[in-house]
């Protein structure tokens, strides 16, 4: 399997363009199941999770054609099945996002149960409660979840115990074709939820309030398709990818400008970068961050949007490992999302986990070591740590990084990093 080798010590300098957000592209792709009309999506990021979602759609009978690089024509006129295979749901939990659209469109939906995950329990109870409130019968047996609705889903009040991102999205997609009005209370306010609502409305849905704690969906009998025939939809830029590149500049004491961003979506990240001593300039669709000689310690607590994103926790932990002073990083969104800590410690970081918090005593320098990515963002954090570690860091299990970053190695190299991807030599027989 491939690995990433990075030699630390180079200051980065340069500009990158953020690609469309993985977490917007995935639900939007799932939403194409809601209509038989042809949807056009632009700038879909060529990352593994998007490929997995496309494979899943293909298995469900959707036709996907790439018209030009990143621009896809997607047509779900005749569905072949309403079952999402366990193999795909196991690879990517976001596969579960097809449940809401399938249920709304066909009255049936089956998926392998997502099961355990490297970053906590991540149950799906909120998704299922939402479907049940809309009138679906839910059955859990043989490792599968099966939902069925006699006739059409009916609008209802749904209160989420936690503002789960994909539960909000799944219920929103189910409700779009339901009879009557659905209100989702304590909904997730993430920009990706807003983007999905905009896409649903682009297809003729009637979703209001996305981006606030209460989302209202007035069901329609069918989605007519894009109001202007052939109109393409471009998902919002990836705020987590943008944040990762900004940290890359700052951790090396250099600078990175990220273009094609929505600065509002980066507010918490920018605030924390400034607290860590970075000089950050925010322009229309561009953010530039320049690191100090050594970052300052600061406390970080992950929260639902607009709080600090859990997906930036691992990258920030890498930054704070080399800061002057002691920081406390508290993870409130997921349990058990500190698997990168052991790996950072192998590189000389001084971090103690106490319950949901990591106490980070900044060290002057990290040392390169072989380390393994345990999930997508953990992998990114190890690469970031490698950018400042003395000597060579070898990051293994890079398939996790490929799930969500497009050409991370090439783009960091273009910013001046000494980094390359190495494929194992073929085994001679
Ligand atoms: C989404 C993002 C992921 C991000 C996360 C939090 C996608 C494809 N993925 O994941 O990158 O890290 O939001 O911002 O958009 N929970 C329940 N019951 C449920 C669902 C969730 O208890 O039915 C809990 C989870 O265990 C977790 C918390 O809610 O503790 C947040 O999870 P959630 O917002 O659902 O994350 P995802 O939507 O899976």
How would you portray this structure in words?
The structure is a single chain. This protein is of the alpha/beta class and 429 residues long. The chain has two domains: 3-19 and 237-422, Enolpyruvate transferase domain (UDP-n-acetylglucosamine1-carboxyvinyl-transferase, Chain), CATH 3.65.10; 22-229, UDP-n-acetylglucosamine1-carboxyvinyl-transferase, Chain (Alpha-beta prism). Helices cover 31% and strands 24% of the residues. The chain has helices spanning 22-31, 48-60, 86-91, 99-106, 125-133, 165-175, 191-202, 239-251, 267-275, 313-321, 339-346, 376-388, 399-402, 408-414; strands at residues 3-7, 13-17, 38-41, 63-68, 71-75, 83-84, 108-112, 137-141, 144-148, 157-159, 181-185, 206-208, 214-218, 232-233, 255-259, 279-282, 286-290, 300-301, 326-330, 350-354, 357-361, 370-372, 392-396, 418-422. The strands form six sheets. A four-stranded mixed sheet has the order 22-23-1-24, covered by helices on one side. A four-stranded mixed sheet has the order 2-15-17-16, with helices on one face. Strands 4-5-3-14 form a four-stranded mixed sheet, covered by helices on one side. A hairpin with a 2-residue loop joins β4 (63-68) and β5 (71-75). α1 packs parallel to α7 and α4 (99-106) runs parallel beside α6. The longest helix is centred in the N-terminal third of the chain and has 13 residues, at 48-60. Residues 116-121 have low confidence and may be disordered.
Helix content: 25-40%
Contiguous helical run count: 14
Computed CA radius of gyration, to the nearest angstrom:
22 Å
List segments where confidence is low: pLDDT < 50 over at least 5 consecutive residues. 116-121
Number of strands: 24
Determine the N-to-C terminus distance: 18 Å
The whole-number mean of residue pLDDT values reads: 94
CATH first level of the largest domain: Alpha Beta
The global form is globular
What structural category arises from helix and sheet content? alpha/beta
What's the architecture of the largest domain in CATH terms? Alpha-beta prism
Number of individual domains: 2
Largest sheet entry: 4 strands, mixed
CATH homology-level superfamily of the largest domain = Enolpyruvate transferase domain
CATH topology of the largest domain: the name is UDP-n-acetylglucosamine1-carboxyvinyl-transferase, Chain
Cofactors, ions, other ligands: uridine-diphosphate-N-acetylglucosamine
Lateral strand order in the biggest sheet: 22-23-1-24
Q: Give the strand content.
A: 15-25%
């Amino acid at each position: 399997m491939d690995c990433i080798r990075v030699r630390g010590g180079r200051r980065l300098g340069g500009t990158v363009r953020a690609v469309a957000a993985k977490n917007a592209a995935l639900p939007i792709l799932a939403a194409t199941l809601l209509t038989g009309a042809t949807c056009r999506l632009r700038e879909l990021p060529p990352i593994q999770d998007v490929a997995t979602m496309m494979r899943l759609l293909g298995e469900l009978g959707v036709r996907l054609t790439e018209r030009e690089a990143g621009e896809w024509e997607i047509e779900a006129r005749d569905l072949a099945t309403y079952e999402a295979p366990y193999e795909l749901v196991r690879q990517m939990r976001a596969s579960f996002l097809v449940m809401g659209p399938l249920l709304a469109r066909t009255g049936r939906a089956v998926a392998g149960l997502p099961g355990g995950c490297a970053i906590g329990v991540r149950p799906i109870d909120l998704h299922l409660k939402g479907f049940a409130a809309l009138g679906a019968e839910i059955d859990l047996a043989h490792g599968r979840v099966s939902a069925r609705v006699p006739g059409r889903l009916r609008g209802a009040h749904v209160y989420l115990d936690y503002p789960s991102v994909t539960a909000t999205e799944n219920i929103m997609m189910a409700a779009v074709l339901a009879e009557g009005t659905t209100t989702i209370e304590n909904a997730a306010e993430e920009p990706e939820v807003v983007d999905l609502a905009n896409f649903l409305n682009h297809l003729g849905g009637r979703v209001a309030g996305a981006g606030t704690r209460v989302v209202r969906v007035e069901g329609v009998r069918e989605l007519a398709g894009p109001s202007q025939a052939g109109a393409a939809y471009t998902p919002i830029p990836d705020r987590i990818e943008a944040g990762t590149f900004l940290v890359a500049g700052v951790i090396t004491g250099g600078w990175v400008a990220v273009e094609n961003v929505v600065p509002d979506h980066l507010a918490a990240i920018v605030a924390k970068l400034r607290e860590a001593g970075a000089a950050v300039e925010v322009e229309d669709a561009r953010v530039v961050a320049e690191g100090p000689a050594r970052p300052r310690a600061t406390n970080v607590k992950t929260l639902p949007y607009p709080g600090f994103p859990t997906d930036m926790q691992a990258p920030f932990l890498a930054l704070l490992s080399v800061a002057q002073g002691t920081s406390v990083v508290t993870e409130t969104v997921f349990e058990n999302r500190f698997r990168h800590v052991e790996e950072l410690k192998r590189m000389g970081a001084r971090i103690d986990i106490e319950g949901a918090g990591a106490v980070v005593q900044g060290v002057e320098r990290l040392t390169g070591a072989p380390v393994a990515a345990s999930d997508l963002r953990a992998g990114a954090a190890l690469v970031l740590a490698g950018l400042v570690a003395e000597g060579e860091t070898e990051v293994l299990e890079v398939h996790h990084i490929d799930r969500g970053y497009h050409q991370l190695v090439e783009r960091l190299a273009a910013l001046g990093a000494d980094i390359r991807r190495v494929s194992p030599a073929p085994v001679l027989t």
